[in-house]
Design a protein that fits this description.
Elements (H helix, E strand, L loop, with lengths): L1 H17 L6 E9 L2 E8 L3 H22 L6 H15 L4 H5 L10 H14 L3
Antiparallel strand pairs: 1-2
Helix pairs in contact: 2-5
Amino acid sequence: MAYCFNYFHILATTVAEDYGYSGYISDLNYEVTGNTVYLHFDYKNGKDSFFNCINAVNSKVNSIVSQIITPGISDFDKELAIHNRVAKNVKYNYNRLQNNTLTVDDFTAYGALLLLMEYLFARDI
C-alpha cells in the first residue's frame, strides 16, 4: 500500500504543479474506489479564495493577451510576446524575502500576475 500512496501522492502533486495550483495547496489526499482515484486538495486560504484567485488570474491573462496579441501573428510570435511581457514585468519580491514576510501569494500566478503586475501595468509599462 505504501507504493500506492507514493504513486498517488506523486500524481496529485504533478497535477497541482502542471496546472499551476501547487502554491495554493496545503495538503493533498486521495481515495480509491474501484478503478477510480479521487484526488482531494486542501487549499491554503480555503476553496473559495482559491477559485477567486484562479478566476482573477484567468481574467488578467485574457486582458494581457488581448493587449499584446494581434490577429494573424504566428504561434511563435504569440509565445514570444507573452514571454517578453512576463519576463519584463514579473520580478521576485526581494524586500519580502529579506524581511522574511513572504506570503502564500508570493509563490503563485496570482501573486505574479495580479499583485505585482497590477502595479507595473498601472504605470503603463
